[in-house]
């Protein structure tokens, strides 16, 4: 685990664009407008921009953390934990962050099944779908990080039709809905920002993938570009939802994005939203693959004897059982909220503290040496 | 479990060299076509042997034997000076003697069971004339294709690459067939790691026989469980020489009229040599048409099943009326209809490939048109489905490579079954599985879906679209050739550096 990663298993610097991008655009894209506009109705797009700027700052923190760690071995979160806090506390902190990732996986898969239940197949068996899906995930993850990055790249390409689909809304837009501008107090904006963390979460998984990225200097530029792209996607989605729905309607629509996809008419097909939901599989698969891979690596870091290919099966079984245990839409919503709070805790509070601890350790180390 | 014991038996292998010259000759003498006679003259006594079905008898009787019988040959050493041959081997090695005799050589011994012999190669290879290609035809372009003789094939390729760096290496593979396999490459261009991998894979092959190039391709493939062919097989020498110019490596098998090109990527399976004869917008459009045809062929039947079984809402209202009318006479589910027609078309295609040419055309027309129309009128299928299946059957053969066409034809069956089980979601899952399989596939260790992933923009210029030759100054990146540029960059930029005149200047 501690030896250098061979170039045959490394990925290029552009993957630092695709991996955070596909991790961030997730199931939240379909329903986030409903949650955000509860607090700052027509100024929600402003909240998206502010939140995006804060996320750029956190990304800088993450990259700083990783770059400082490079000289001590592998630049990833596991070695930071074990080096700064020692073996035992490090393992506990690893467990703390990896549980968040496991929660993300279960939440994402179950939310997707929820959407399929509502819009496509009301009686589809959760267990069967998760089982088939996780077998494909096993096949992909057993190909290593290169296959996973390939899936991220392909997912970016296959999801482009979905963003093009939103262009069809613009003829129906009522831009007057955006007025009056800047009508809300900063408190409401900050509340919306807090709710937006659920959407922007995902870039911090760079903490686990970073050792595998070659040419880290260019990779850093690509990472910032990917967060900027995500900010662009979310802002446009918010603006489009605000100009399409009225505020009262928005509060009654749980999935605004899918609802406005329903109104798109093509000559040869109707009900584009069903096709769009099937296309969203490509947003689901890189998330689950990368997260399973990270959890398997965490297990390998803690107990090097267990090979990744065997722990992967156990992890996927855990994900399937977790997904099947959640039964109703209300439970899905609750899990989403738990995940968002947990994630906000990690990126807004825990990561800056970690950077501070790393800085202190460096000072102490230098003090002890000199 | 059941077959483990059979592997423990050690096999001697039938093609071991005999223990001595006497054993070899005794073994061969039982054959009626083995000639082994003594020539006694005033000056020389020697024993001549050859297998008369393998050697060129006319050459022996007209040129070699008269020179041997002439009086200038006083002893065995004079043979080298007197007989008019370009290649004379003097050896004592029994395996060389055995190989040469069975290859078609004349052997001259000083006494009946002597081991120090002279061998003159004079093989007669039966092969047909260089004819038009049957499988990969081109409309504008050369029409000659490979034949079964290795020498003729190498001639066809060598005449297109008259440089001294062009190298040919020969190996013999197969315990019983001892097939000659030639590896062709341009030294200094082809990547050494690729070359070593191919050589190692071919020489390490533990097999009884290699009958044709496709069998060899399956044996040395990276992943023999995959549906997709990993190396391109072609019967056109111009395609092979084009590949060699780029830095790839070709493998020719004696007795097979096709060559393998390694390594290859998936986009090359969808390019034809005609694309380089047309202007670039037309060539790009044809490539995109091929892509669309492949996608249509794979997915259309499963979309029919999924939409009609689960997602009626997707069909526009006006088309729905037609669909209902055409399906109203069919008494069962869309899946049964689709499977029935698919199996019928596969039967027609497979049988049509084996029919003698005179009968084949009639049966094809009868089968295709008459059976199709009759099944619609009997209410066994709907006519919309007939159109879809016929179009997708045609579209599958739009790929220039035959093996890829069969893979595409086969690929639609999993899609149809999954569409019945899970509707459009199943089609999405199956598609995802195949794409991820392609992501993991490698051809000689190089990624198979290069230039899509890893994305190389320089290689994208010759994949789904073909940009003009002036835009393609570099060789494909995945080959890792020693010389990256196709053109001399200094000379091309020199021309660009000249100041462009203004309008009417």
Shape of chain B: globular
State the low-pLDDT regions of chain A, or none: none
The beta-strand count of chain B equals 12
How big is the Rg of chain A?
A: 21 Å
Intertermini distance of chain A: 31 Å
Write down the overall geometry of chain A.
globular
Supply the number of structural domains of chain B.
Answer: 3
The secondary-structure class of chain A comes to: mainly alpha
Radius of gyration of chain B: 30 Å
- CATH homolog superfamily of chain A: Amino acid/polyamine transporter I
CATH topology of chain A, what is it called? Amino acid/polyamine transporter I
Determine the mean pLDDT of chain B.
Answer: 86
Helix-strand topology string of chain A: HHHHHHHHHHHHHHHH
Strand content of chain B: 5-15%
Poorly predicted runs of chain B: 6-14
Largest sheet of chain B: 5 strands, antiparallel
Structural class of chain B: alpha+beta
Strand content of chain A: under 5%
Q: Give the count of helical stretches of chain A.
A: 16
Structural notes for this entry:
The complex is a heterodimer of chains A (370) and B (505). By secondary structure, chain A is mainly α. Chain A has helices at residues 15-24, 28-36, 44-69, 77-119, 126-141, 145-158, 160-165, 186-200, 206-209, 216-244, 247-252, 256-262, 272-279, 281-302, 308-325, 329-369. The longest helix of chain A is centred in the first third of the chain and has 43 residues, at 77-119. Chain A is globular. By secondary structure, chain B is an alpha+beta fold. Chain B has three domains: 21-121, no CATH class; 150-264, no CATH class; 278-446, no CATH class. Chain B has 17 helices and twelve strands. In chain B, helix 6 packs across helix 9 (237-246). The longest helix of chain B has 39 residues, at 402-440. The interface between A and B is medium-sized, with 31 and 26 residues.
């Amino acid at each position: 685990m501690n030896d250098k990663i061979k170039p045959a298993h490394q990925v290029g610097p552009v993957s630092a664009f695709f991996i955070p991008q596909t991790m961030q655009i997730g199931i939240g894209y379909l329903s986030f407008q409903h949650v955000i506009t509860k607090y700052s109705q027509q100024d929600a797009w402003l909240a998206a921009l502010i939140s995006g700027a804060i996320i750029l700052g956190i990304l800088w923190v993450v990259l700083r953390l990783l770059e400082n760690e490079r000289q001590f071995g592998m630049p990833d979160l596991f070695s930071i934990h074990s080096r700064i806090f020692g073996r035992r506390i490090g393992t506990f902190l690893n467990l703390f962050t990896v549980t968040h990732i496991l929660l993300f996986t279960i939440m994402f898969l179950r939310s997707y099944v929820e959407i399929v239940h509502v819009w496509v197949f009301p009686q589809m068996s959760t267990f069967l779908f998760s089982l088939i899906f996780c077998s494909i995930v096993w096949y992909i993850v057993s190909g290593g990080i290169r296959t996973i990055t390939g899936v991220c790249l392909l997912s970016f390409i296959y999801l482009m039709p979905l963003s093009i689909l939103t262009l069809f809304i613009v003829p129906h837009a009522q831009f007057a809905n955006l007025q009056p501008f800047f009508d809300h107090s900063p408190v409401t904006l900050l509340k919306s920002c807090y709710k937006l963390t659920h959407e922007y979460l995902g870039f911090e998984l760079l903490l686990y993938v970073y050792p595998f990225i070659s040419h880290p200097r260019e990779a850093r530029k690509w990472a910032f570009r990917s967060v900027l792209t995500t900010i662009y996607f979310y802002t446009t989605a918010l603006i489009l939802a605000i100009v399409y729905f009225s505020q009262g309607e928005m509060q009654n629509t749980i999935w605004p994005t899918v609802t406005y996809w329903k109104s798109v008419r093509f000559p040869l097909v109707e009900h584009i939203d069903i096709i769009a939901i099937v296309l969203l599989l490509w947003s689901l698969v890189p998330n689950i693959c990368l997260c399973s891979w990270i959890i398997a690596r965490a297990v390998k870091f803690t107990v090097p004897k267990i090979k990744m290919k065997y722990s992967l099966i156990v992890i996927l079984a855990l994900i399937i059982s977790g997904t099947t245990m959640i039964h109703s839409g209300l439970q899905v919503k609750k899990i989403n909220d738990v995940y968002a709070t947990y994630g906000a805790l990690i990126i807004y509070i825990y990561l800056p503290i970690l950077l501070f601890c790393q800085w202190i350790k460096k000072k102490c180390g230098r003090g002890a040496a000199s | 479990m059941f077959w483990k014991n059979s592997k423990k038996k050690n096999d001697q292998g039938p093609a071991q060299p005999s223990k001595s010259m006497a054993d070899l000759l005794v073994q061969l003498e039982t054959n009626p076509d083995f000639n082994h006679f003594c020539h006694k003259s005033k000056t020389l006594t020697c024993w001549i042997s050859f297998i008369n079905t393998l050697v060129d008898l006319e050459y022996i009787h007209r040129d070699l034997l008269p020179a041997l019988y002439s009086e200038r040959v006083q002893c065995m050493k004079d043979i080298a000076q007197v007989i008019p041959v370009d290649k004379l081997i003097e050896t004592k090695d029994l395996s060389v003697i055995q190989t040469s005799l069975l290859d078609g050589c004349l052997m001259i011994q000083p006494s009946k069971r002597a081991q120090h012999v002279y061998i003159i190669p004079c093989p007669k290879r039966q092969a047909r004339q260089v004819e038009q290609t049957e499988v990969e035809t081109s409309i504008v372009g050369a029409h000659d294709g490979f034949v079964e003789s290795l020498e003729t094939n190498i001639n066809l390729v060598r005449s297109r690459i008259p440089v001294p760096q062009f190298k040919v290496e020969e190996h013999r593979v197969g315990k019983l067939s001892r097939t000659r396999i030639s590896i062709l490459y341009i030294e200094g261009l082809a990547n050494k790691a690729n070359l070593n991998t191919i050589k190692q894979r071919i020489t390490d092959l533990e097999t009884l026989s290699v009958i044709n190039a496709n069998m060899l391709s399956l044996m040395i493939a990276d992943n023999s469980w995959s549906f997709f062919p990993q190396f391109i097989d072609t019967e056109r020498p111009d395609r092979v020489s084009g590949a060699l110019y780029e830095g790839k490596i070709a493998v020719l098998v004696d007795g097979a009229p096709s060559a393998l090109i390694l390594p290859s990527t998936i986009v090359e399976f969808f390019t034809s040599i005609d694309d380089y004869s047309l202007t670039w917008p037309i060539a790009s459009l044809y490539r995109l048409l091929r892509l669309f045809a492949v996608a249509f062929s794979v997915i259309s039947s499963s979309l029919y099943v999924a939409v009609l079984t689960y997602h009626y809402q997707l069909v526009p209202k006006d088309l729905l009326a037609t669909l209902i009318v055409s399906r109203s006479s069919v008494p069962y589910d869309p899946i049964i209809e689709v499977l029935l027609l698919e199996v019928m078309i596969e039967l027609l295609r497979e049988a049509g490939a084996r029919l003698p040419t005179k009968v084949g055309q009639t049966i094809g027309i009868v089968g295709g048109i008459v059976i199709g129309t009759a099944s619609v009128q009997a209410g066994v299928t709907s006519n919309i489905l007939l159109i879809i299946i016929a179009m997708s059957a045609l579209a599958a053969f739009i790929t220039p490579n035959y093996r890829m066409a069969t893979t595409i034809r086969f690929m639609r069956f999993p899609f149809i079954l999954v569409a019945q089980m899970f509707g459009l979601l199943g089609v999405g899952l199956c598609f995802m599985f195949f794409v991820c399989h392609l992501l993991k596939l490698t051809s000689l260790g190089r990624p198979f879906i290069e230039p899509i992933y890893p994305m190389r923009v320089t290689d994208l210029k010759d994949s789904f679209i073909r940009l003009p030759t002036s835009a393609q100054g570099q060789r494909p990146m995945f080959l890792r050739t020693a010389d990256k540029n196709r053109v001399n960059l200094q000379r091309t930029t020199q021309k660009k550096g000249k100041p462009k005149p203004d309008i009417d200047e």
